[in-house]
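Supplementary Text 2. Reproducibility record for the structural model of the 956-residue chain.

All settings were left at their defaults, and a single model was retained for analysis rather than an ensemble. We include the record here because the model underlies the residue-level annotations in Supplementary Table 4.
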Amino acid sequence: MKSHYKYDDITDNITDAHTQLGLPCEDKAHLETVIILIEKNQHTSRQITHDELRSIKIEIKTIPTGKQRVLRRALNNTLYYLHQHCGWQIPQPQIKKLIDTQLIWMQLISQQANDASRLYAGYLEEKRHFLKYRPEFNIGFITVALSIEVAPLSLDYWADILNRPEAIELYEQQLTLIVHHQSRRVSNEPSSHYFTRYALTPFTCRLLLDYFETRKQKVTTKGLHKALNHYLSTVPYGLANKNAMQWQHCFQNIWFFEYGLPSVLLLDISQPHRHVAFHPCKFHVRNDDSISNIYDHDWHQPDYSTFSSNKSQGWPHRDLLKAVKNQPSSKWKAILNAQFTTPPAWDYDNIIPTILYHFTYDLIQFGGVKADILSPSTIHKYTNIYTLLTDHPLSYSAACDHDALMQWATTVYDKLESEGDHWLIYNFFRFLPQLSVTEHFDITQFSSPFLSLSVDPFRLSTDQCFITLNALLSQSNGSALQRLFCAVALILGFYGALRRGEVLRLRCQDIVCNPDDPERITLCIRNTDEGNTKSKDTRFIYLSIPKPAAKLVYTVSRIKRHCLPDDPLLGFVNETMASRQLHYLLPITKALKILWGNNVRFHHLRHSGAHWLMQQGLQFTLDWNISPFSFGAATQAMLTRESCQKRFDFWLEGLNFSDVNDGLLFDVIGKQLGHRHYTTTRWSYLHGVEWLTPLFSTKDYTTEYDELRYLLKISPQCKSVFRFLKSLYSERKEEISILNEQEVIRYLLKKKRLKELQSVSPKQDSFTLSDDNNAFKTLWLSQCPDTTIQHHRSPSKTLFNYQTLSLVESLISDNEPEPTFLTLSQFWELSGKHNSITLTKTQRLALSKLGPMIIDNENLTLSLTLKCNKVNGLLFEQVFHLPLFRCFHFHFDLQQNRKTDISNNLQLINTHFKTSKDTLTTRTVDKGKTKFTITLTFIPQSPCLFQMLCDFLHYG
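Retained model, structure tokens:
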């Protein structure tokens, strides 16, 4: 979809992408020529084919001068930018040329090898001197320390950080540094708030804190470069002056050779704009009442007879605007809390008015992206788009279907003509992922492919995943199978890092469970009749899931053992994909938003799975026995060496890791995720780098006494450090020489100065898995009702719940189930699907007035004999035309005395009793009264379900 942009934006971004590496780039005029050539193919997707690239090269070749060479270089510059920064797929031969570009960058780094070695040795010597004698701060020393212990960033970034004391944050018990993106290449609107989080060592954190206490003047890049040149020309370095880029190459050389960082990761940590970090939600409220409603149908069928001509009722956001219009902004939140505590219900046929209500509410409460408070006129401008949406309703079911939602958005966008309207509707589209029903909306389809992809950063820990799983299983108002299908969708989405559609399209034949090792599960992600994979390719995913969670996956597989291979893994037989989205994914989204914040979406399970897969791969590669980070119990268990090895056994195939090519690790991980290139994984799924650098830089970390004294802010000669060590000995039995960095941080955080650091993450979530492998399964079964009769929230209704504990246990038992899942699916489909089955007191009274029903358990029939009159006809309609009774075949038998006119009775039967699917037999007799018998034959061949239904009908 075409988006509005300027060529200057793109050419600036291309130039930046090269100059940040110290690489040459053609001038903007030639880059613009290449962009115009690429545009000729009307690119709306981020891909250029071999034929398209060939036609561009042919056109360049027609130029009869040496300008050909310049444009070919400009083409390479542009393709490098599009591939690395915009996520374009390009032909494989061209990718090899991009690798050549990175080799040139590595050559520039290698040229600094000699000076880098001297610089590193000099730094270690100078650090020891600093810790022992505590000289005055030298900004050159601080910059060197940060570049060697934190990341080899450019001087532009270090100058910015040295002016921002608030850059230091405590994040999940880790000392971190917030680095704001400076690159112009990320030109989509949210990018101005993008940042990357880096890990600080205890020493660099203390160094920065002390520096900020004594800082006297603002630091500029030019001044920092001058100070660095001067500092590194002195003893013990004695290095000649270099330009800023050469110094960065020098520090990059240290990370490459001293820490063993692969070139692709070296590029990642050197350029903050290659990753986007996130602030975790600090105010997630674990509201039991809210969680208990995740399975509720929060939409209603509209009652058209109640609609009035008052447009404010049709667009409830206008009531919000009216309420705050003439009020000071200081009173707005109070007005919202007093008058608008309950949002309007979702109208099943059109949810746009309710979405716009939520959009307006958030604009009033939270303001805009840049301003905390928006003026009423600005809010009116943003929300006046309802006039553009009046003719484009969106049903609840269509909103839950990704393809239908995107088609609706495309239709709306294409109908607009002015640039202003395009921007306003784009801004509204950006809000859609914040709502549970539209959380899968893909805003990137409305962004220019020549600008970087927007990214929605967030991830959950394994502990948070299990807390969510626990919430899904423990709600009694969800039916047994719905809760199970939701739980398994969450597990596979998290551990398999699956997309929404991939979870929904899984079929029974696409999952293979290993009976010899219950933790191992293999998934096949392939094209199906319901849709294709994103890449159109088939891939196999090899999972290692903790046994309590894996048991739930096995349970679903067990229940579906009689189903056809092509039947959906999650859901009933013949259940539509739209229905499966609505009832098995939407409750997960609701739970995620309630527990972890309104910005969390189902797709973040894929982000999370990708992150932890990468974390497992790197820790296994680098031979970590346990994670060096402070995580919850479940996440720590996931990152043990044993768990990491088991996750990659499919790749090792029994070999030792030393026997395989570890350079293929990123390719192996990419294939598991369905990514052809690491670029996609890195930008869209790996958020921040605070989890990356410590894996390389702190493997052999030890703390000397002099450094401990500095960290504790005590005199270099003070002996009280031993009291601190003694306190450590009281808490751990191991030698202090193996104290790791995270343990040092944990103890330092008890000190006053570090204790006051801004913490941006809530208390660490921890979930300890039970030793009982059936723990989650037991929790699921504990919420299954013992009886078919349940009391409804309305006292005048009783609820029929056929998914009882006994029925579920029959489905999962080793014996032949009764009913089978196929029969159960047939009953589900005939009796109203996911709609609640209820009888009101009025309907039960009508049933009793019709007279007794004769039950034939052998033939699965109900029969009743009654007078054929209008009174009984109305009573019959009131009960037996409910969706529940579609699981019966109705046969009407009318025995009529030959002396009586049959036409009146036939008219009554056709009006009040019989439907087009029912059968009717009429007989005339010489003697006797008219006799009207109705026989209901239960269609599903299940005595168990039939008996349940009979018990429900005769209840009370």
